[in-house]
Amino acid sequence: MKEFDNGLDKKFEFDFSAPKNSQINIEKLKSFISQDKNPTIIFYGGEPLLQIPKIQEIIENIPKATYCIQTNGKLLNELPTKCMNNFKRILVSLDGDQERTDKNRGAGTYEKVISNLKLIREKGYKGEIVARMTIAQDCPDLFEQIQNLLQIKEINSIHWQLDVGFYKNDFNQEKLEKFFNQYNKQITLLVDYWIQEIKKQNIIKLYPFFGIANRLLGKDKETRIQCGASYAGYAITTNGIIAACPILNNIKDFQCGNLDSKPSELKQIQIQECNNCEVQKICGGRCLYWRKAKLWPTEGDDLICNSIKHLISKLRKHLDSLKNINLEYEKYFGPEIIP
């Protein structure tokens, strides 16, 4: 079997010292977190619900933080109600309908997750539930799949991430041109639908549209990467090393400090590659990992960038319809703004 080449070994130095299970010193974590006036702690994986006792321990010892969790949703039924109600937001991996989700995440996943979402609502969970979609290269039907998710009453909001540009061996020019041609058409359909619903006083919380519209309208003055990686948010690994974001936690080049560091001393990593782009102040560079890894040739990256420009241009055309609409949202807790 041919070994899969992700193209990273020649670019970065890796550090796989973080153990599978969290060994973070709670007192050190508490001391570090307490230096932030309004801290938010997001449990991320792997699958964080495999360590429910550790989650409970952290919440009990740091009660003043705001809590969120990103999960595949399969173990939500095992989360104690008291612990569950500490989460302001629960982000759950769903890629659309049952067929699509089960294809991506395993047979029975969709039914299990939907059952668990109904269960936690029945148990009294009143926080936001965010559907986290992955759009694969062979499945560009974003509009259709979002329509399916909008039928699930337990879900409050949606965001999506394109699974493109993250591996060296998944570049295929012909296949990608076809994908992005279809995806951009789906974006056009989705923007038009979103605006039509807004005119009916139905504001659908699609995080990419909220984030981009706020920057286009000048309501968000920030121009850096929209996810906040390495300036508004960091990832704390299971041994207390602080990385620029969860995707980069094993790469030494993106380590920014540790729990003994002061937040003000944490390394910030800037994206310089996009400084001359006309949408840089809106996009911010899409993804720190993608921009620094540079695993695809220019032709592939251009397809990604053009899809972002297409999305921004479609929303820009509707600013008159959006300027008096409340599109406030909490930033930097996980949803992708630039897919």
Q: What this model shows, in words?
A:
- The chain is globular and about 50 Å long.
- The model has no long low-confidence stretch (mean pLDDT 94).
- The protein contains twelve helices and nine strands.
- The strands form two sheets. Strands 1-2-3-4-5-6 form a six-stranded parallel beta sheet. Strands 7-8-9 form a three-stranded antiparallel beta sheet, with no helix packed on it.
- The longest helix is centred in the middle third of the chain and has 27 residues, at 173-199.
- With 339 residues, it is α/β, with parallel strands linked by helices.
Strand content: 5-15%
Q: Decide which structural class fits the backbone.
A: alpha/beta
- Rg measurement, Å: 20 Å
Helix share bin: 25-40%
In total, the number of strands is: 9
- In which order are the strands of the major sheet placed? 1-2-3-4-5-6
Listing every helix as H and every strand as E from the N terminus to the C terminus, the arrangement reads HEHEHEHHEHEHEHEEEHHHH
